[in-house]
Amino acid sequence: MTTRPILFIDGMNNFVRCYVVNEAVNAHGELYGGALGFLQHLFFLVRTFSPSKVFVVWEQGGGSPRRRKLFPEYKQNRMKSPDFNGLYKNQRDALMADATTKAKQLQFLTQALGNLPVTQVYIPDCEGDDVVAWLVKHKYANTPTQPKIIVSSDRDFFQLMEDPSVKMFDPIKKVLIDSDRVMEQFGVSPRNFCLAKTIVGDNSDNIPGVPGVGFKTAAKRFGSLLSSKHEDVTVDQLLELARQQVTTAKKPAKCYQDLLLNEHIIRRNWQLMYLDTSCFSASQIEKLKARVNESDDNQVKPSFNYLGLLKAFSGCDIPVSQSLTEAVQGMKTLLF
């Protein structure tokens, strides 16, 4: 019998995706598509994977204080509001630009999830990526036969797939990603994907890499290191290979010299991109352990409260459709 997987849902990544495409409104014409789309996707995930546990990991956004101290420009591109020059194509665009609309949806969504058998995790001043990494690499590290599925479109999680029990489900493409798929697409193994990103950079997090070097170039020039599935390659090894090429090759490729000139960027990027406990204080780890351990305690295990869920919908004047009722009941059946 196949062991049922654990789902780790990147909360903000999935919410924002729904928020920008779902135009559902409540009885007063207020947008609630982000929250409703999230719930509908959650029910789809439960039907598809029949998980034994579901974690929804939230964050406040803007990057952790440790990373911002290391690199003040980190994620600053996400902090800027879009410039519409005071003009909006329609009322929906104006509402979408209103932070209050997003806050209301998130408040309703977290309340609704609180009545479902899922564990919501939020640790102040911590990024969701780091929390998911802790869950996968520490909390559930000793369950090698239990599949662990991270639901996100964030490539930062590829590095966690060095554990063969870890896969990613892309909520946009609706595909399950494993280590072979990462290797096929990027020419880099998940084990060394983070190292490759230190060279390439990450525009979505406002992290510059070595100028002119993308994944194709990195895979071509450093494939002997980055394609390794069994060895954790270090920044020092990468730089040593570049140094050897510069000093011994008759016509070394320009990227080798570029790497050596930008060593400080590569070393900084590793500190920004590597997912582990280094971004946590001792008190944050204790809070994380306490919150997650609750989900393992039968006395305080996340429960199904249909009346509470209906109350959450009623409080926001959101109609409960027949399809939603059936989905919720189906979720109860699968998770218990």
Order of helices and strands: EHHEHHHHEHEEEHHEEHHHHHHH
Biggest sheet, in brief? 6 strands, mixed
Hey, roughly how much beta strand do the residues contain? 5-15%
CATH class wording of the largest domain: Alpha Beta
Radius of gyration: 22 Å
CATH architecture of the largest domain: 3-Layer(aba) Sandwich
**First-residue to last-residue Cα separation:** 17 Å
Please work out how many helical segments DSSP would assign: 16
User: Could you list the spans in which at least 5 consecutive residues all have pLDDT below 50?
Assistant: 81-91
| SS-derived structural category | alpha/beta
CATH topological fold name of the largest domain: Rossmann fold
Q: What general outline do the C-alpha atoms trace?
A: elongated
Mean pLDDT score: 88
The structural domain count equals 2
The H-level CATH homologous superfamily of the largest domain, spelled out, is 5'-nuclease
Strand ordering within the main sheet: 3-2-1-4-5-6
β-strand number: 8
Provide the helix percentage. Answer: 40-55%
